[in-house]
Design the sequence.
């Protein structure tokens, strides 16, 4: 057996990383539905507790995006841009609706087509978040991005990582 085959061999225990068992799609979907229902109940019964409970519910998603995007300024910018674009889109839809019932009936009918396509557009825009900043004013855009990087690295990254991963450190 050649060295190349040895490195690619699945029998090498050093190459194998234990993968946690991933719950089924139906279970994950059910868990998310219960979380959304719980958030709705909190919003109605205890509006003051809603922001904290929402942050706790979104933390796993933030953590996953943080790891996937490299865990730095780019990841943070991606999350902030995506959330901003999605919330702006949702509020735009609410304001454009002629009534409460109208909003929900429109959304139920148009969700599979327009809303999801706009969300995909928001996803692409979030991937490209530094570009509008650099285009702001060519020499100043780069200076602003450098300043944001300095502030992020010096003051924001450590507390953000502590907030994201404090549950993992405790277990």
Sequence:
């Amino acid at each position: 057996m050649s060295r190349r085959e040895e490195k690619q061999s699945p029998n090498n225990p050093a190459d194998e990383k234990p993968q946690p068992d991933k719950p089924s799609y139906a279970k994950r979907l059910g868990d998310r539905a219960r979380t959304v229902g719980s958030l709705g109940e909190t919003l109605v019964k205890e509006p003051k507790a809603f922001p904290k409970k929402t942050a706790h519910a979104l933390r796993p998603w933030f953590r996953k995006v943080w790891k996937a995007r490299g865990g730095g300024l780019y990841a943070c910018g991606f999350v902030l841009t995506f959330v901003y674009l999605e919330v702006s889109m949702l509020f735009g839809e609410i304001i454009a609706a002629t009534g409460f019932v109208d909003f929900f009936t429109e959304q139920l009918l148009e969700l599979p087509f327009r809303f999801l396509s706009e969300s995909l557009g928001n996803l692409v825009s979030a991937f490209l978040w530094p570009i509008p900043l650099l285009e702001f004013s060519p020499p100043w855009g780069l200076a602003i991005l450098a300043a944001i990087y300095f502030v992020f690295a010096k003051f924001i990254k450590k507390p953000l990582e502590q907030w994201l991963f404090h549950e993992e450190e405790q277990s």
